[in-house]
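Dock phosphoric acid mono(formamide)ester; give full complex structure.
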Amino acid sequence: MPQKRPSTRRLARGSRAPFGVAQGLGPAPPLHHVLAAQQFDPATLDYLFRLADRMEKVAARGGNNQCRDRIMATLFYEPSTRTRFSFETAMLRLGGRVISTENAREFSSVSKGETLEDTIRILNGYADVIVLRHNEVGAAERAAAVSRVPIINAGDGVGQHPTQALLDLFTIRKELGRLEDLSVAMVGDLAQGRTVRSLAYLLSKFRDIRIWFVAPPELRMKEDILEHLRKHGVAYKEESDLAKVLPEADVVYQTRIQKERFGGRIADYEKVQGIYVLDSASLKLMKPKSIVMHPLPRVGEIRPEADADPRAAYFRQAQNGLYVRMALLATVLPTRRPRPKPGAGRVELSIP
Ligand code: CP
C-alpha cells in the first residue's frame, strides 16, 4: 500500500483509538454504515486488512470478547450461504450474539406489508448493527436513512456487494502480495453481477490496474462503471474471447450467469449459459503466478478438476470473508473500554 500510516498520536475527527486486537494499528477509521465500495479510501482498506490479518489468528484461537454484549441482526431478503454464515460466525467469534431472518420476505412482517424502513426502525431497538441483503438496488441506502445503528450492505439486487469486494481485495493482497500493477479479468455476468461492480470501484483506487471485462454483448459491464474507470484513469478493455485474456491476467475473477436475474427470459439465459467455463485446459493458459477467484456459488463455470490447482483461490477467498467481516464488525461497533475489575485503580495508603 502506498499510503503512509497515520500517526497514532493524533486522532482525526470522528476516529477512535482502538484497543483489544486492533491496538497498535493506529486510529480506527470513522466507519459507520457500509453501503458502497466507493466509500473506502486506501488508508481505511489498509487498516481493515491489517486488522483482518490479526482476526485470522483470533479466529484460529477460537475467538475473543471484542463484541461482548453486542447484537447483530442479519436481515436477508435473498438467499445466501457465505455472506450470512460468515457474518454470523464473525460476530460469534467476537463474542457477540446474532438475531437473524434468512428469508425476510416470507418470515418477517414484510409478508404482511411492513416497509423496509419500518423494519429497520424496529430492529434499531434490538440490535447494535444490521447486515442487510435485499433484492432492490438502493435498499441499503434507504435503510441507512432511518437507522441509528450501522447498516452493512450485504448485497442489494444488481447494485453492489461492498463487503464481498473487501474480501476479494484482501484475497488478492494475501495471494499475490500487492494491490498495484495488476491485470484483472472479470468474466461472465458483468451486467447483473454486483460483486464485479463493487470490485471495479475498489480496484480503481490503486495504481497500474488493468481490467478486462470478458462477457458476451448481452452481459457487458454497465456504462456507469466504465465511466467511473475512465474518470479515474483506469485502463480497461472489453473482450468476448476468454482464451485471449487468460495468458495475461494476474487474477481471473469468474462469475456465475445469474439465472434468477433473467426473470421469464429463459431463452436469453440459455443463450449465454455455459459460455465461459474454466477447466484444466484454461489453467494451462494462465501464468504460473496468477489466481482464479469466484465469489461463489458456482454452477458449472469452474469445473471441479480445477480445484486441486494451487492457483484456485476461491475457497480460500470465501474463508477470508470471515476475517474481513470480523475486522469490519470490530470497526463499526464503537469500542467499549474493558470494565475495571472491582477494586482496580484504588490507591492503597500505606501508613508507616
Ligand atoms: N458471495 C456471496 O455473496 O455468496 P452468498 O450469496 O452465498 O452469500
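Observed: The beta strands are 71-76, 97-101, 129-134, 151-156, 182-187, 209-214, 235-239, 251-254, 291-293.
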